[in-house]
UniProtKB/TrEMBL annotation:
HAMAP family: Adenine_deaminase. Residues 11-326 form the Adenosine deaminase domain. Zn(2+) binds at residues 16, 18, 196, 277. It holds the Pfam family A_deaminase. This is Adenine deaminase. The active site is at 199 (proton donor). Substrate binds at residue 278.
Length: 326
């Protein structure tokens, strides 16, 4: 199929990828065995069958439990390397990876163990596959702001390795305003900012992310459509939305792919991009997300070209690096 070859071949950047969400069941079992951790599933198949979610929280419960097999630097290296190898085959040329340090430091894993393993893989991946990278540290919004502030302080020695801070986990009841002071400190330390907003939460959370956290991109943001003035603002400012089509269907943000607003937002002139979020849990990496959206929404070659161009435009690459892909 020629549109598939086109989608796979076109250079694109992935801007919304939780590295812990790329943990495939096979690697989860291998690491569980390595560390003598007991998983509550008898087999890879049984685990995969458990990946049926009602909403964001039902997914997060499984995602945090799965991450418990990640214990040493080599685990984080293997996790990140497997992801890079996989998306190299999908035509991804640049990645901006989220990691959730609190998921690990809460279990007694050192911050350094996590980031050193990921960084070593990113460097290896650049050498082996030519994939460039940025790293984004996310705060877990279900934890309190003081915990996020302590995490930010732990990250200061790694400033040069982390381009931005982000905000993820349970959205409802945890508005961006809760983290205004943390993000203000982060920006004063030189970090850029992004935040998950408008995935399950209301458009008001997107407005808070823009006004209070001063984000350079909105992760998901699909509920912006409920507020026409907000949509107009996002278009005017060319504020990128990192949309995750398969995730939105799996977590029932939309009922079916045909109902997704990606194409409408694209046609309105928004800088929307396609991303995989947590590919091991949601049924596919970058190409699978492009393919599912293309089929469900009847996207044209021009749409695909625009989506890929948006991903480069919305990235944190330097202007000269963007030029190379434009
Ligand atoms: N953590 C991993 N994936 C997430 C998502 N889609 N929304 C919020 N937090 C997440
Ligand atoms: Zn996400």
């Amino acid at each position: 199929n020629s549109i598939d070859a086109f989608m796979r071949g076109i250079p694109k950047a992935e801007l919304h990828l939780h590295i812990e969400g790329s943990l495939e069941p096979e690697l989860m079992f291998a690491l569980a065995h390595k560390h003598g951790v007991k998983l509550p599933y008898a087999s890879v198949e049984e685990l995969r069958n458990a990946y049926q979610f009602d909403d964001l929280q039902s997914f997060l419960d499984l995602y945090y439990a799965g991450a418990a097999v990640l214990r040493d630097e080599d685990d984080f290296h293997a996790l990140t390397m497997a992801y890079l190898k996989r998306v190299h085959a999908d035509g991804v040329v640049h990645v901006e990876i989220f990691f959730d340090p609190q998921t690990h430091t809460e279990r007694g894993i050192a911050f350094a163990t996590v980031i050193d393993g990921i960084r070593r893989a990113l460097a290896d991946g650049e050498r082996e596959f030519g994939i460039t990278h940025r790293l984004i540290m996310c705060f877990l919004r279900h934890l309190d702001a003081a915990d996020a502030m302590r995490t930010l302080e732990q990250a200061l020695p790694y400033k040069d390795a982390i381009v931005a801070v982000g905000l993820d986990s349970s959205e409802r009841g945890h508005p961006p305003s809760k983290f205004e002071a943390v993000f203000s400190r982060a920006r004063s330390e030189g970090f850029l900012a992004v935040a998950h907003a408008g995935e399950e939460g209301p458009p008001a959370y997107i407005i808070e992310a823009l006004d209070l956290l001063k984000v350079a991109r909105v992760d998901h943001g699909v509920r912006c459509e409920e507020d026409p003035a907000l949509v107009q603002r996002l278009v005017q400012d060319r504020m990128p939305l990192t949309v995750c089509p398969l995730s939105n269907v799996k977590l029932r943000v939309v009922e079916r792919m045909q109902d997704h607003n990606l194409k409408r937002l694209l046609d309105r002139g928004l800088c929307v991009t396609i991303n995989s979020d947590d590919p091991a849990y949601f049924g596919g990496y970058m190409f699978a997300n492009f393919q599912a959206a293309q089929r469900g929404l009847d996207l044209s070659r021009e749409d695909i070209t625009q989506l890929a161009a948006n991903s480069i435009e919305a990235s944190f690459l330097r202007a000269a690096e963007k030029k190379h892909w434009q």
